[in-house]
Write a structure and sequence with these properties.
With 343 residues, the chain is mainly beta. 6% of the residues lie in helices and 58% in strands. A hairpin with a 6-residue loop joins β24 and β25. The longest helix has 20 residues. The radius of gyration is 44 Å and the shape is rod-shaped. It starts with a helix and ends with a strand. The N terminus is likely disordered. This is Htaa domain-containing protein. Keywords: Signal.
Length: 343
């Protein structure tokens, strides 16, 4: 009986020793959110919706969540994540479209990894709403000045938001100028738009060329440029020479009492050559055998200096067009044109 008890004791002791020497079970790693990526960031909405990809990298997670919240007071929205192996990690991805209805500003994300416990990571990404702009009703006036005089550049900067085109106030607009013969515009002045986007500024005109307004854009607005406005600069103090070119009296020989037709062009000498001049030209006639010129009528030239008119022919003689000149230009006269009148 004693031997059986001793043998049993030995078995128990051996078993106890085996338990003491057994290695402990391997503990499962705690979950972790290693990285959250937002692409693109910032999300810039200029019109169509922008597809944005969210990537969450985790370890030790059997499940993951991603929630996003717009700026200000609001609630988190859960995005659907799709997992795939990524080395020693798991990559979870989700996409979301951001359009015109998406609030601009700093958005918040919350990524959660679930496993033997829970881990999370928070961060921010930016959504920008960028709208079209335009410069409307731009004008540089007057369109003809003496060198050194002031012209007024004015217009209205507008932005197209969800409600349509609206005035864009408290923005900087540059007034630029390109001289005739030059390739590029140069900065002349800067003006700040007022209420309703209107602006107005005086600038000195030193040369003939084109003026325009430029808006460089901002965080929520695209850049824009106005159309160019041409301004002619006349150099003081001397008067400019003029000429009446291509004068012609036609439909000749003329029948007694019938209409003759007249055309020509009044031009002014500019720095770059002869240019059309808008003013008035007198039509004169001298009968054959007479020494006196008679006034017939006055004709207005167009902005390119061209004129056309008619007058009845009663006798043969010479016709010409005469420009009297003004405070800025010398007078001039056309060549003579003889017309024979038949009865």
């Amino acid at each position: 009986m004693l031997r059986r008890i001793q043998a049993a004791a030995v078995v128990v002791a051996v078993a106890a020793g085996a338990l003491a020497l057994a290695p402990p079970a391997t503990a499962r790693a705690a979950p972790a959110v290693n990285e959250v990526q937002v692409n693109p960031n910032p999300v810039v909405v200029t019109g169509p919706a922008v597809k944005t990809t969210f990537t969450v990298l985790t370890t030790g997670a059997g499940r993951a969540e991603l929630q996003i919240k717009p700026p200000g007071a609001g609630v988190y929205t859960k995005l659907d994540l799709t997992p795939q192996p990524h080395g020693q990690q798991t990559k979870w991805t989700a996409t979301k479209d951001f359009g015109r209805s998406s609030k601009a500003g700093k958005w918040t994300y919350l990524a959660i990894a679930h496993g033997e416990g829970e881990a999370s990571k928070t961060g921010e990404f930016t959504v920008k709403q960028v709208y079209d702009t335009r410069i409307a009703r731009f004008d540089a006036s007057p369109d003809r000045v003496r060198r050194g005089d002031t012209i007024v550049a004015s217009g209205r900067l507008q932005i197209e938001d969800r409600h349509g085109w609206d005035g864009f106030g408290r923005q900087s607009v540059k007034i630029t100028f390109r001289e005739r013969g030059a390739d590029a515009y140069r900065h002349v002045a800067t003006v700040t738009t007022g209420r309703g986007g209107w602006f107005r500024i005086g600038v000195r005109a030193e040369a003939t060329g084109w003026w325009r307004a430029e808006y460089a854009g901002g965080d929520d607005a695209k850049p824009s440029v106005s159309d160019g406005e041409h301004v002619r600069v006349i150099a003081p103090p001397s008067k400019a020479d003029t000429r009446v070119s291509r004068f012609d009296a036609y439909r000749e020989p003329a029948k007694y009492g019938r209409y003759l037709y007249f055309g020509g062009r009044l031009q002014v000498a500019e720095d770059w050559g002869w240019d059309g001049y808008e003013s008035r030209v007198a039509l004169l006639f001298k009968a054959r055998g007479s020494h006196r010129w008679e006034y017939v009528k006055t004709v207005r030239t167009d902005d390119d200096g061209r004129f056309f008119t008619r007058a009845k022919a009663w006798q043969s003689g010479w016709w010409r067009a005469v420009y009297r000149g003004d405070s800025e230009t010398h007078g001039s006269a056309s060549k003579l044109d003889y017309v024979r009148v038949k009865r």
